[in-house]
Amino acid sequence: MAFDIAVKRIYEAPEKSDGQRVLVDRVWPRGVAKKDAALTLWLKEIAPSDELRKWFGHEPARWTEFQKRYGAELDGNEDVVAKLRALLDKGRVTLLFGAHDEAHNNAVALAGYLLRHPRA
């Protein structure tokens, strides 16, 4: 069974079609009130390590290597990945992020990882 995963910026308005909304950033996004975020879960433990996040710096030239390194971190974080898979087993999950770059961020990388690795 393929997962139903969506990815969007947390600054976009919540919609019913989002399903379960999961923030996957380690730091709470600026300017977003927790009551307005309509989160199912804030899964900060699944975010890239601070070291990896700082190295990447949202540089598109580092994107491929970032995905590899983040995938390796996720491989070593099975309990947290399992939490997210359990939500995905129940239906659509929208991974939320705060970055400006909508194509090169940890939520996009995480969605790709989950689609490539539906089960541990």
Automatic annotation (TrEMBL):
It comes from the Bacteria. PANTHER family: CYTOPLASMIC PROTEIN, CYTOPLASMIC PROTEIN-RELATED. This is DUF488 domain-containing protein. It comes from Mesorhizobium waimense. InterPro entries: YeaO-like.
